[in-house]
Amino acid sequence: MKVLAAMSGGVDSAVAAARAAEAGHDVTGVHLALARNPQTYRTGARGCCTLEDSRDARRAADVIGIPFYVWDMADEFHEDVVDDFVAEYAAGRTPNPCLRCNEKIKFAAVLDRAMALGFDAVVTGHHARLGADGLLRRSVDLAKDQSYVLAVLREDQLRHAVFPLGDSTKEQVRAEAAVRGLAVADKPDSHDICFIADGDTRGFLDRQLGARPGPIVDAATGEVLGEHGGAHGFTVGQRRGLDLRRPAADGRPRYVLSITPVTNTVTVGPAEALDVGRVHGARPIWHGEPTPVECAVQLRAHGETFPATVRRTDDGLTAELHRPARGIAAGQAIVAYRADEAGDIVLGSATITATDRAVAAA
């Protein structure tokens, strides 16, 4: 099979490309240049999309012995990921840029270009598995599982995807990289948002959207407890950074319950007010059986799962949680899983649009 290996410059994508070559596939490596101005992106090993990453990817391809190219996708990345990130925060939602990058860049723009060039599939270093049935499953390394950010992929995209690392732990991948002589064997994982050079998300959004002061309001009394510099600096469930001028009457900590961009209002309340019993999602991708279905749902990256009853609706998904979840933000994804003997299967996903309080759901 003729495959294109997306090589980020990290250890996972390098080992994935090496395994694909060792399996007898005709492999070509490609690194995605995503920064319009590389100097504004991270340098060093803390993030991804850096100049160092490009050089690391090239060296890994040389060791593996495969052709290597760099594709400039900065404009697509800026429009589909960076601009989307800013627009979502401006609308009072909390996006996941890695999820959007997988959806719009790695498995849309890249896959489309690969197919046009005659490749059969795209290989990536994601920690996830594809079963013989074509269904996406969790990685055996649950701590590194990335099925949540891949659950936006359609069936036709999954048919042209290869995830060679799903049966290995991260420790095994690093050990294999060392044996193969790949210099990235001990390279740290990336954790931060790659296009925010200093790691200051709020500062980045301030520069993009500007200061826009507004009230911080108590949900129960309607009393103005303080002022913020921009509603985009907050997310549901946040406690730090509220800087309330007046404490609540009961003296208890307050958390962000909701963000209303139209009135530029941040509403706060006690922790238990964050508990939700029903989650609504739009833009569904569904691979599973007819609904309603009893399953588990994950509501944030690397978050816990909750038993739920999931139903398809005319325009999305609704999950009735069997126990409350706390601090669920619109803009994240709801991903439904079903457990079987081969591991958790991704049934489908949707983008969270709204939640209902646990008491109301009960």
TrEMBL record:
Lineage: Bacteria, Bacillati, Actinomycetota, Actinomycetes, Micromonosporales
Gene Ontology terms: cellular component: cytoplasm
Protein's name in the database: tRNA-specific 2-thiouridylase MnmA
PANTHER family: MITOCHONDRIAL TRNA-SPECIFIC 2-THIOURIDYLASE 1, TRNA 5-METHYLAMINOMETHYL-2-THIOURIDYLATE -METHYLTRANSFERASE
Gene name per UniProt: mnmA
UniProtKB keywords: ATP-binding, Cytoplasm, Disulfide bond, Nucleotide-binding, RNA-binding, Transferase, tRNA processing, tRNA-binding
Site (Interaction with tRNA): 126, 332
Domain tRNA-specific 2-thiouridylase MnmA-like C-terminal: 285-352
Organism: Virgisporangium aliadipatigenens
Family: Belongs to the MnmA/TRMU family.
Listed NCBIfam families: PRK00143.1, trmU
Its EC number(s): 2.8.1.13
